[in-house]
Design goal:
The protein is mostly beta strands. 5% of the residues lie in helices and 25% in strands. It is built from one helix and six strands; from the N terminus they run E-E-E-E-E-E-H. The strands form two sheets. The protein has a four-stranded antiparallel beta sheet. The chain has a two-stranded antiparallel ribbon with strand order 3-4. Strand 3 and strand 4 form a beta hairpin. It starts with 26 loop residues before the first strand and ends in an 18-residue tail after the last helix. About 8% of the residues have low confidence. This is ATP/GTP-binding protein.
Length: 104
Amino acid sequence: MSPRRNRPYRADKFEPRPEGDRHGLERVETWQGEEWVMRPVAGTGGKTYRCPGCDQEIPPGVGHVVAWPEYGGVDDRRHWHRSCWEARDRRSAKLLRSRNAPRH
């Protein structure tokens, strides 16, 4: 006797999703006269990112936001703290610090 299948078989289970429905939480926002795609991320496994808003690290497992110009490529994606993304008009990657200034 073969084991019981707990889930019903669905022939359409491997059909690709429509392109517009791929990431339901993605949205487009305007910033600095450019359209940006923004997607919240629950957390990553094993990779540390640097937030361009505060220049601090985003450790693995911490929820954050990934944003990129609408017509940009994979290399244009940036990982931001959620609060830094919301305050992006007051924060920027163009902060000038002296060589010995603390980064906190």
